[in-house]
Specification:
The chain is an alpha+beta fold. The chain has helices at residues 18-32, 42-61, 64-88, 238-244, 267-271, 275-294, 314-325, 347-352; strands at 12-13, 16-17, 37-40, 91-97, 107-115, 122-129, 132-139, 144-151, 157-161, 164-168, 175-181, 185-189, 212-216, 220-226, 248-256, 259-263, 298-303, 306-311, 345-346. It has a 5-stranded antiparallel β-sheet. A 4-stranded mixed β-sheet has the order 18-17-16-19. The termini are far apart.
């Protein structure tokens, strides 16, 4: 046989592979350089001082009972440090956002605290977030705890959450031990929706009797897709869900004879607006699209770099809000100009004429 064709085996050291020693060193470093901080509580300071006092007394007197009490107190302090360390080990966090978050409206946020340890729970956790504190009293091995918060975003755009602090006083309250998660997660905030606005819009001629096939809840099959927040539970396909091990829904199509197309027009007039006027105009467009969708209209929109044909599908129309959330007319146009929509209403002119 050709020696050059033989499979190279990993080097062996004392009967163990180099990979084993590398992983062992990394685990050793992680354990003795933990990503956590520690501070004594006032109660913990008193306990440590009392323990030192008992220890000095035991050494001076040689009393066996004093040695016994001193050993027990040291044991409690050591156990407190080890158990609190275990509670903070193996934790991961994940934010779960609502699909529709609007500026100026309270929105639910859920933080999942996951315990990746296989056999040990995490107990007595206090979670500090930008939205306020929460508590996870018990997180089972391999399980998770859900903490719910409410936050009202002040403006549209991309928002970021970072620096989540998890601390514990468990088990005896001698130490306040914590670790910080700096992994940032971002979410999109849609423009503010003003449902009280009155729109005096007239359908263009020729649109009143035209029907279009749009996604919705009708009789004609469209597709099978993942279940989303807001979907009708009666549309769940239980057979497909069982095969896929997740909820799947049947999406059908329906006909609509009411549709409306909006256009933002050229960016020049938008650039001429002040920042307050821009936000009000963008909020007006978003409110118009969202309200007309709620009234049963198929809604579409056109901009220089965006085009959506009229649709009654909620998730498709949400792409209009997503575009408006990031809309900045001062940025240069990088994408290829999008095709226009027939009979589109100039929303900026409508906003100015209110």
């Amino acid at each position: 046989s050709n020696p050059s064709m033989e499979i190279q085996k990993p080097p062996v050291r004392n009967g163990l592979s180099a990979k084993f020693w590398t992983e062992s060193r990394s685990r050793f470093k992680r354990w003795f350089n933990p990503p956590r901080r520690l501070r004594f509580t006032r109660f913990g300071v008193y306990v440590v001082l009392l323990t030192l006092g008992v220890g000095f007394g035991a050494m001076n007197t040689g009393n066996n009972l004093a040695y016994l009490v001193f050993g027990m107190m040291l044991g409690f302090i050591t156990a407190s440090g080890v158990i609190s360390e275990i509670s903070l080990r193996g934790l991961e966090i994940e934010w779960i956002f609502s699909p529709d978050i609007f500026a100026g409206s309270p929105a639910p946020f859920r933080l999942a605290v996951k315990n990746r340890k296989k056999s040990l729970p995490s107990i007595g956790l206090r979670v500090i977030t930008p939205f306020g504190p929460g508590r996870a009293l018990y997180v089972a091995p391999g399980g998770h705890a859900a903490l719910d918060f409410t936050f009202t975003p002040p403006k549209r755009g991309i928002h970021e959450i970072s620096r989540i602090k998890i601390e514990t006083l468990f088990p005896f309250g001698f130490f306040r031990k914590w670790r910080v998660f700096d992994e940032a997660q971002s979410f999109i905030v849609y423009p503010k929706i003003n449902l009280g606005l009155k729109f005096d819009l007239r359908q263009p001629a020729g649109e009143k009797n035209r029907t279009t096939q749009e996604k919705g809840w009708g009789d004609t099959f469209w597709q099978i897709r993942d279940f989303q927040h807001g979907d009708n539970p009666r549309q769940i396909s239980w057979k497909v869900s069982a095969r896929q091990a997740r909820l799947m829904v049947r999406e059908t199509e329906r006909e609509t004879d009411k549709k409306i197309s909006l256009t933002l027009g050229p960016r020049g007039p938008w650039n001429a607006l002040s920042s307050e006027e821009l936000e009000d105009a963008v909020s007006f467009v978003a409110s118009l699209a969202w309200q007309k969708l709620a009234e049963g209209f198929a809604v579409g929109m056109h901009a220089d770099d965006f085009s959506l044909a009229p649709s009654t599908n909620r998730r498709k129309v949400a792409s209009i809000l997503h575009y408006l959330a990031l809309f900045d007319p001062s940025l240069p146009l990088e994408a290829t100009p999008a095709p226009g929509l027939p009979d589109a209403l100039p929303v900026l002119e409508i906003w100015k004429s209110r």
